[in-house]
Specification:
The complex is a heterodimer. Chain A is mainly α. Chain A contains 7 helices and 3 strands, in the order H-E-E-H-H-H-H-H-E-H. Chain A is rod-shaped, with a radius of gyration of 62 Å. Chain B is α+β, with helices and mostly antiparallel strands. Classes of the chains: A mainly alpha, B alpha+beta.
């Protein structure tokens, strides 16, 4: 059977596919959809939907890991510039301090002496330590910030994946419920059709029975007609049985030889 | 009752009244006439046909079976004899089948059929006491039937729809 039209498209089942004329229709081509077609299509749809639901696989959620994450996109692209700028500032401060120490040593007449050299060396060492700490702190901060941002992204991705998984499961459940509802409607349609069918058969049987009774009465009348002459033969017997029939019995006797002898001898 | 011989004779008679003798005699004569009439077939309807409601219910059952793939699309009236109209009521009569059977009998056993039919008066004989015809009261359809007219045929059967 084709499924052109039917409940899915909201179309009309043509008579060739079992559609019945719509009530009150006057041959305008409109036919009511056959309820059994609807039941069949509903059942098929419900079975397909249920089978699809049985095979549904929810989306897999994989937890992200920092250790397997490329942190490059999370680093500040200007970090190197910041570090270089900070080291430059330290170098500039170191040079200014070296100039001050040299100026003080000149004023004290100790420029080029060992004391001056020691002070300059201490200033340089302090500047180098400062530079090292500054660079390390800047890079550490950048790394920690990148790590934190990557962790947030991993968490966001995890939440999104879980939400999608839940939505998928909810959708699958909704489709299964719809398939079940469709199956129920199909069963309802089938039962409704069967009830109407039985009603039609019963009413038709009543009509046929009435027609048969008319035929039987007509035949009985004919048989009464055709058998009437035969039955009329019994009218006389019935009448005789109902009325007393007088009978006359006559006995006559012709005398014989002995009769005469007896009469002669006085016997 | 009578007796005789050397002792003489004695006779006893029972007399039936004349007003009974007449009707009884005519009754016997009438019975003889009626026996000549023979069998009177019935050509009226015997079985009521399915009503449109029944046919539609059957068609609906067939359509339902077809919808679920249990049977091909079919016409439930296929193979059923076409009903005849008897005064506005659809039904079937067996008169034509009866004639068909008589015709078959006459064709296959003509002597026996003729011998049987000569025993009785037929409608074409013109009266209860008229001489019987060659085939008695029942002529096969091919000879024409005074009751049904020309040759009758068996009920036609409708073919199935595609």
């Amino acid at each position: 059977m084709g499924t052109t039209g039917g409940i899915y498209s909201g179309g009309i089942v043509p008579p060739s596919q079992g559609g019945a004329p719509a009530p009150g229709g006057k041959g305008g081509g409109q036919v009511a959809p056959n309820v059994f077609q609807q039941a069949q299509q509903g059942q098929t749809g419900a079975m397909l939907g249920t089978a699809a639901g049985m095979g549904y696989q929810p989306a897999q959620v994989q937890a992200g890991q920092i250790g397997q994450t490329d942190l490059t996109p999370y680093f500040n692209p200007f970090e190197q510039t910041v570090v270089q700028q900070s080291l430059g500032d330290i170098e500039q401060a170191r040079q200014m301090q070296a100039n001050q120490l040299a100026s003080q040593a000149q004023r004290a007449g100790a420029f080029g002496g060992s004391r001056s050299a020691i002070l300059e060396s201490q200033a340089n060492e302090a500047a180098m330590q400062q530079a090292a700490r500054t660079a390390a702190n800047l890079r550490l901060g950048g790394f920690q910030q990148a790590q934190q941002m990557a962790g947030q992204d991993i968490a966001n991705t995890m939440r999104a994946d879980l939400a999608n998984q839940s939505a998928g499961l909810a959708g699958a459940g909704q489709r299964l419920a719809a398939a079940g509802q469709l199956g129920g409607l199909a069963q309802q349609s089938f039962g409704m059709g069967r009830n109407l069918q039985q009603d039609m058969a019963q009413q038709g049987a009543l009509q046929q029975m009435l027609n048969q009774q008319i035929f039987d009465q007509a035949r009985g009348q004919f048989e009464g007609y055709s058998s009437f002459p035969e039955r009329s033969l019994g009218f006389l017997a019935s009448a005789l049985g109902a009325a007393p029939v007088p009978q006359t019995q006559t006995t006559t006797r012709t005398p014989g030889l002995f009769d005469y002898l007896s009469l002669a001898f006085g016997g | 009752m009578s007796g005789g011989g050397k002792g003489g004779k004695q006779k006893t008679e029972v007399e039936i009244p004349s007003w009974i003798q007449g009707p009884a005699s005519r009754n016997l004569q009438r019975a003889e006439q009626l026996a000549q009439v023979g069998y009177m077939p019935y050509y009226g309807p015997s079985v009521a046909a399915f009503t449109p409601m029944q046919t539609q219910a059957m068609q609906s059952t067939a359509d339902a079976a077809a919808a679920f793939g249990l049977a091909p699309q079919m016409d439930v009236t296929a193979g059923m004899p076409e009903a005849q109209d008897f005064g506005g009521i659809q039904g079937y009569g067996t008169g034509q089948m009866f004639e068909q059977a008589l015709s078959e009998l006459a064709a296959n056993q003509p002597a026996q059929a003729a011998s049987f039919n000569r025993l009785f008066t037929g409608p074409q004989a013109g009266g209860l006491l008229a001489p019987t015809g060659p085939m008695g009261g029942y002529l096969p359809p091919q000879f024409g039937n005074p009751v049904l007219g020309g040759g009758s045929s068996m009920p036609s059967f409708r073919g199935g729809r595609s």
